[in-house]
Specification:
Layout (H helix, E strand, L loop, with lengths): L3 H12 L4 H17 L8 H14 L12 H13 L9 H13 L7 H14 L2 H14 L5
Helix pairs in contact: 1-2, 2-3, 3-4
């Protein structure tokens, strides 16, 4: 279950009309913090991001399933989306405990600055030059003006 502060930040982003990926970013950020403090673990940065996105979908952020993903990943995304509509259900304590223990056993290097930088660079490399240029221009437009 995401922390209350994360849910509030995501809701604020939604109220401000920000994109679903921006709202989901709050959950990914929280997951990175959890991994760094040893609450969770992940085998890779990609898995850590996937856990954060799953939490976002379950919290009600309307994220589309990844386009080039496998059928299994798309099914998981729609399953998370469906779970967001079922509220007030009591979670199984033993299942929850098992999940927490399994995640704790995983490594904590997936959320390091170096690992995240490597992940971002490899993902950016797979996009075309035009897409990279557009996102750089978008970043420049939204950058604080008075610098």
């Amino acid at each position: 279950m995401p922390e209350q502060s994360t849910l509030e930040r995501a809701k604020e982003d939604a109220r401000e009309g920000k994109s679903a990926s921006t709202q989901a970013g709050e959950f990914v950020r929280e997951e990175m913090h959890h991994i760094r403090e040893g609450k969770d673990g992940a085998r890779s940065s990609k898995q850590a991001i996937a856990i954060g996105l799953s939490k976002a979908r379950r919290a009600g952020v309307h994220l589309d399933a990844p386009k080039g993903a496998s059928a299994e990943t798309r099914r998981k995304a729609s399953q998370d989306e469906a779970a967001s509509h079922r509220t007030g259900r009591k979670r199984s304590a033993s299942r929850s405990r098992a999940t927490s223990r399994a995640l704790k056993r995983e490594g904590h290097g997936a959320a390091t600055k170096r690992a995240l930088s490597k992940q971002a660079k490899s993902t950016a490399k797979r996009r075309g030059p035009a897409a990279r240029s557009n996102s750089a221009k978008r970043a420049a437009r939204t950058r604080a003006r008075g610098r």
